[in-house]
Amino acid sequence: PEQAAAPATGGDIGNGSTDTMLLVHIGGWASGIPPTMVSLPRDSYVDIPGHGQDKINAAFAIGGAPLLTQTVEQATGLHLDHYAEVGFDGFAELVDAVGGVTMCPTEPISDPLAGIDLPAGCQELDGRSALGFVRTRATPRADLDRMLHQRAFMSALLHRAASPAVLLNPLRWYPMAHAVGGALTVDQGGHVWDLARLGWALHGDTVTTTVPIGDFTRSDSGSVVIWDREAARRLVAALAPDPPVPADVLNPVG
User: Fold this and answer.
1) Which residues, including other chains, have CB under 8 Å from residue 88's CB and lie 6 or more apart?
2) In 3-state terms, what secondary structure has residue 175?
3) What is the pLDDT at residue 129?
4) How far apart are CA 97 and CA 90, in angstroms?
5) Residue 115, SS3?
6) What pTM value is reported for the model?
């Protein structure tokens, strides 16, 4: 309870729903195709294998990482090669280990539920503030801004982790490596080189988008997001064989 209170995560302790989901595609080294980072809205209304339709983030609460992976694979038609999971506390520790990350919100963000009161403009966020920044819905577009913040922060975090200020400073890279080892849960086939490849790929130019959204509506599960099936199909079809993602299915601002 004390750990949950410190970063203002709230909620129940235990195997809850996923807070954030990012699908990352990395092409072959010789493909010349930049990595693509796709936000999957946690309120996406999808079929959960064996459990009917529900919000996609419920899959983790029901069956943990295996069911979440199966649900994403079924919803997208893609095979997921690897899975990585980070908890709230691990996320905050990782940010602190690299010495903080600079972000530049265009408007002030005050959200007591997320434990933040940030002015507009560029500022360095420590672990607690960074966690609140990527989780807050206290902005005009709520979840859409939230996903934009998450992708922007992930890019900034990886730029910071790969910077000389961290890599050439043992007082930074050793705590970072220790934080990564303690913060991440990965699939059984995962290897440290997979994480290194992921970090190296994402610290450069990256295509960022949200899965195409068709509608916001209500269901037995509450307010849900319905994907634009045709645009989502074209996005997924582009990710599988490594061609460039069609520009008209990208939604980089959320």
Assistant:
1) 4, 7, 9, 19, 131
2) helix
3) 94
4) 10
5) coil
6) 0.72
DSSP 43-90: TBEEEETTTEEEETTHHHHHHHHHHHHHHHHHHH-PPP---EEE-HHH
Q: What is the DSSP string of 146-168?
A: HHHHHHHHHHHHHHHHTSHHHHT
Q: What angle do CA 208, 32, 34 make, to 5 degrees?
A: 10
Identify the pLDDT of residue 114. Answer: 87
Instruction: Report the phi/psi class of residue 23: left, alpha or beta, with left for phi > 0 and alpha for psi in -120 to 50.
Output: beta
Instruction: Estimate the crossing angle of helix 88-97 against helix 170-183, to 10 degrees.
Output: 170
> Do the Cβ atoms of 178 and 162 come closer than 8 Å?
no
SS3 25: strand
Q: Which residues of the chain have pLDDT under 70?
A: 1-17, 28-31, 181-183, 189-204, 242-244, 252-254
Tokens of 57: 């983030």
Query: Among 3, 114, 21, 8, which Cα is nearest to 60's?
Result: 21
110 and 95 Cβ atoms separated by less than 8 Å: no
Phi, psi dihedrals of residue 46, rounded to the nearest 5°: -135, 170
